[in-house]
Amino acid sequence: MSETMTGTDRRSFLKTGAIAAAPLAALAPVAALADDGSKARLARIEDERAIEALERELLRRLNAPDTGRCAEMFACGKAPDLGAVSIRADLARAESEIAFADDAKSATLRRTVSAEREIHFTGNTTVEQMVRLQGHGSHRHVEDRTLVARLSKNKDGWRFETVELA
């Protein structure tokens, strides 16, 4: 008799659970169909993360000895010459500023960076000739600049259109 009671109790428990869960199951599709702008916000967040990852990869490739690998990141297939020996993102100051166009197919990225530049002494003045003879043919200095990039989105994802140091 105890087996019958246990079986009945289990069945009734499962039936009660199914009856209680039915209204919740009916509400789930309605919540999924409701358009509260969350899909657009999610798409924007995904685009921001993709652009930030592309920016990190660009800085990594620009600082690599072989900058030729940067070309595949650009829509035109040609890497820019920024005139800098190295570029470091200044993470302590601010994050990247990303501004999307109304159609969400293009964006502008701005970030403060530290650009190390090298100036070669090519003049014929006495001072420049002396410096070159002493083995110092160039001067390196670091300056704060703003990296400005224009990006476009196609079927393969985000690509750089232009990148410049302002």
Automatic annotation (TrEMBL):
Native source species: Croceibacterium salegens
Name by which UniProt lists this protein: Nuclear transport factor 2 family protein
Signal sequence region: 1-34
Record keyword Signal present: yes
Keywords (A to Z) from UniProt: Signal
